[in-house]
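Hypothesis: this fold can be encoded by more than one sequence.
Test: take the C-alpha cells below, design a sequence, compare later.
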C-alpha cells in the first residue's frame, strides 16, 4: 500500500474520494469559522470607522431579528416563502426525475432535451418573473413555478449523471434474470443512483429558497422577499441584514433536513444499516 498522505489524519485530504468519510463533529470547524467571522464583523463595526447606515453591527442585526420574532413578523413573512419554495421543489421533482430517466435511456431524446435544459438556466429569473405574472397571475403559484425552474436544473443533471454511471454488469445480470424495464428501474437503477438523485434534490430544494425570494422581490407577495423590499425602501440596513439572515437560516435548515432524509433514504434504498 502507498504511504498515507501526511495531512490525511487531519481530515484535510483523502486520496480516495469515494471513501471519504465525514469527520466526527464535522460542524465544529464551520462553527469556529462562523464565530471568527462574527468577531471580525463586530470588531470592524465597533471601531466606528463604518457608519451603521452602511454596515450595522451584529448586535443590531440580532436585536432586529429578536424584535421580529417577538412581534411575530418573522414567522408571518417566513411561512409564505417556505411554502412557495417547497411547492416549487415538489413540482421540480415531479418533472425532473421522470425526464432524467428519459434522457438517460434515450440518446435521441437526450440530444433534443439536454440543450433546452441548459438554456433554461441562462435566462435571468427577473426576466422570467414578469412573464409568469402575465401567464399565471399573482399569488403563490407563479412564485412556486419560478422556484421549480431554479430547482429543476441540478435535479436533472445529477440524476442523469447517476443513472449513466451505473455498473452495467448489474443491469445486464438483471436483464438475464428476466427483469422487466420497470423492475430494473425500481429495484436496480434507482437504488444504485440514489446518492446522485438525492444530492440533486437537496441542491434543488435549497435553491428554491432563492427562487421564492426573487419571485416575491419581483412579483410581490407576503414573504421574505416582500419584507426585504420594505426594508430596502425604508433604508433600514439592519432590517435588510435581518431578512438575509432569516433567508440563510431557512435555507440551512432545509439543507440539514434534506441531508438527514437523504442519508436515511440512501441507507434504505441501498440496503445499508441506518
Amino acid at each position: 500500500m502507498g504511504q498515507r498522505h501526511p495531512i490525511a489524519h487531519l481530515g484535510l485530504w483523502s486520496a480516495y474520494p469515494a471513501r471519504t468519510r465525514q469527520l466526527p463533529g464535522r460542524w465544529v470547524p464551520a462553527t469556529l469559522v462562523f464565530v471568527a467571522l462574527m468577531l471580525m464583523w463586530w470588531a470592524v463595526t465597533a471601531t466606528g470607522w463604518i457608519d451603521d447606515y452602511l454596515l450595522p453591527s451584529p448586535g443590531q442585526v440580532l436585536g432586529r431579528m429578536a424584535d421580529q420574532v417577538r412581534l411575530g413578523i418573522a414567522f408571518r413573512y417566513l411561512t409564505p416563502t417556505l411554502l412557495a419554495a417547497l411547492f416549487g421543489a415538489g413540482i421540480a421533482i415531479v418533472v425532473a426525475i421522470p425526464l432524467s430517466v428519459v434522457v438517460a435511456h434515450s440518446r435521441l431524446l437526450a440530444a433534443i432535451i439536454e440543450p433546452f435544459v441548459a438554456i433554461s438556466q441562462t435566462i435571468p429569473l427577473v426576466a422570467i418573473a414578469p412573464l409568469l405574472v402575465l401567464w399565471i397571475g399573482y399569488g403563490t403559484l407563479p412564485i412556486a413555478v419560478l422556484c421549480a425552474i431554479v430547482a429543476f436544473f441540478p435535479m436533472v443533471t445529477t440524476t442523469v449523471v447517476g443513472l449513466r454511471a451505473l455498473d452495467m454488469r448489474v443491469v445486464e445480470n438483471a436483464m438475464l434474470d428476466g427483469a422487466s424495464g420497470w423492475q430494473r428501474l425500481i429495484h436496480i437503477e434507482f437504488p444504485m443512483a440514489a446518492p446522485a438523485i438525492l444530492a440533486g434534490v437537496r441542491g434543488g430544494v435549497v435553491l428554491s429558497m432563492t427562487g421564492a425570494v426573487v419571485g416575491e422581490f419581483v412579483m410581490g407577495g407576503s414573504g421574505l422577499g416582500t419584507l426585504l423590499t420594505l426594508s430596502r425602501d425604508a433604508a433600514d440596513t439592519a432590517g435588510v441584514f435581518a431578512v438575509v439572515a432569516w433567508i440563510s437560516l431557512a435555507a440551512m435548515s432545509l439543507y440539514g433536513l434534506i441531508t438527514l432524509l437523504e442519508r436515511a433514504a440512501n441507507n434504505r434504498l441501498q440496503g445499508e444499516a441506518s
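Residues 181-219 form the longest helix (39 residues). The chain has one domain: 58-269.
Hypothesis status: open.
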